[in-house]
Every structure is written in structure tokens, then in C-alpha cells.
Amino acid sequence: MKRNAILALLLGAAFALNACATVKGAGKDIQSVGQAGEDAINH
């Protein structure tokens, strides 16, 4: 089970790093995560 969690974390990090190739892209990604968290708290 731990192995699957670590693998999922590494894959997620690889996709996130790939998506955040630029500073502007990283800012948008961080903003979208913040918005999703805010939505989850408010609902």
C-alpha cells in the first residue's frame, strides 16, 4: 500500500512539474488549487 502511495505521489509531482514549466503556469496552478480548496471549504 505504501508503495502505491509513493508511486502516485511521484507521478503526480512529475505531472505537476511538467504542467508548471513556466512561472506564469505555476502561478495559475497554485491559484487553481487555492480556489478548489476554498470551494471545498465553502460547500
TrEMBL record:
GO BP terms, alphabetized: response to toxic substance
A Pfam family recorded for this sequence: Entericidin
Top-rank lineage group of the source organism: Bacteria
GO CC, alphabetical: membrane
UniProt keywords, alphabetically: Cell membrane, Lipoprotein, Membrane, Palmitate, Signal
Position of the signal peptide: 1-21
Family: Belongs to the EcnA/EcnB lipoprotein family.
Listed name of the protein: Entericidin A/B family lipoprotein
